[in-house]
Amino acid sequence: SEMGDFSFLKEYIDGLKKEIYEGPTLSRLEKDNFIVIFSGIDSQITNLQAYIENESRKKVQYFERVHQLEAELIAEKESRKHITPEEEERNRKLALLAEAKELARAARNIVVELRRIKKKTSEHNTQIGKKNVEKLWHGTQIRSVVPISLVVALEMDSTLQEALNLNALSIPIYGRDDEVKGMITFGDVITYIESLTSDRTELENALKTMKIGEDIDLRFHRIENVLKISSSQYWPVWIQNPIAALINTFNKGFHYLPVVDEDEMLINVVSTSVLIKILSFELSKMEPLLHNQELTMTEVCEQQKLNFNFATVSISGTALDALLAIQKVSTRVVAIVDDDGVIHGNLSLKDFKVIIQLENST
Fold first, then answer.
1. Which pLDDT does position 127 carry in this prediction?
2. Whole-number Cα distances in Å, 7 to 3, 12, 13, 97, 107
3. Which of 290, 315, 330, 361 is exposed most, by the fewest CB atoms within 10 A?
């Protein structure tokens, strides 16, 4: 409104306050956060209303002055009959130009004030969002987001064939004393097979048939042998620890982490993809407080000091090339790219395990 009447907006915001504070869907903390935001908006609207009213008064004074000048010009015209039509037209244009400049200045001041209010509100939301994320990271125990699950596991005397038959990419290995001795991944199985032959053709046949030559049948090799060369450390995370413990441990280069209870009993194995789903779900609850934060994935990785290994293979390469590329950089996924570096798809260790399972089932 030209005169700064924002009563309709205040009534609308008061209605939102009442709806949010009396609504059953939000927690007390979330309601309080919204009330703080609306209080800030109320204050800014009051300031803006006062500002616009002041500018309106100035505008009235300005037009009064313009009319006064017009009257003086008319009086001067009467006293100076010799003024030419060109001079009269010039004076009229100058008066109009002065009025346009004044109106433009007032409009710029309003725009600047609105931008300042938007920036301050956004900064306030960002601070609240950061506090809530910190609470999630450090105040939420793993037990509240990671369920107790039946963990697929093997024993030291189990065979490679048994490992390949399991629908799991990371497998805890128990000893004869029923204690976890370590973990192996599908990548460790590939590394073990690589350690038995340096010939590319033999390696490719071994992945298809689980045999090297006529004498070595890999299906009956014991898991204990794979565990000896495994690069997968057994690094348990306790269920009573905060979610930050999972994030910090994954950032050490792990792809899978065992979660244990207070008695050190294994209750689940969490992968990086599962962690992402957990965080995505939890952060989605904070969306109203985070929607103004425009962060790129690069900025997120830099802030959290996250490091990711990245493997690529040419689209004209073989499946074995892709598998070896994954093993080389110790990652789980390889991007398939053309000669221009354009990504056409990706393959994961899970894809290769399914392929090898199908090859060995025929």
1. 61
2. 11, 9, 10, 34, 21
3. 361
Backbone angles phi, psi at 152, to 5 degrees: -75, 125
Q: Which amino acid is at 3?
A: M
> Which DSSP letter does residue 142 get?
G
Which neighbouring-strand residues pair with 141?
242
What amino acid occupies position 270? V
Q: Which of 4, 3, 17 is nearest to 60 (CA)?
A: 3
Q: What is the pTM of this model?
A: 0.51
Q: Evaluate whether 52 touches 4 at the Cβ level (below 8 Å).
A: yes
Are the CB atoms for 211 and 218 separated by under 8 Å? yes
Kindly report the backbone phi and psi dihedral angles of residue 245, in degrees, each rounded to the nearest multiple of 5, phi listed first. Answer: -65, -40
- The DSSP bridge pattern shows strands 180-185 and 211-212 to be unpaired
Beta strand spans in 272-342 (E): 311-314, 333-337
In angstroms, the CA 7 to CA 46 distance is 10
pLDDT, residue 290, reads 47
What is the pLDDT at residue 3? 46
What pLDDT was estimated at residue 289?
44
In order of 63, 258, 325, the CA distances from 265 in angstroms are 83, 10, 35
d(CA 81, CA 338) in angstroms, rounded, equals 85
How far is Cα 362 from Cα 354, in angstroms, rounded to an integer? Answer: 13
> 35 with 20: CB under 8 angstroms?
yes
Q: Are 3 and 60 in contact (CB under 8 A)?
A: no
DSSP-derived letter for residue 30 is H
Return the H-helix or E-strand segment holding 154. strand 154-155
Burial class (CB in 10 A: 0-12, 13-18, 19+), 326: buried
Averaged in consecutive runs of 10 residues, what is the pLDDT profile of the chain (362 residues)? 59 74 70 74 78 82 85 73 73 83 81 75 60 66 81 89 82 87 86 85 83 83 88 83 83 84 87 79 60 51 55 82 74 81 80 68 59
CA distance 184 to 173: 7
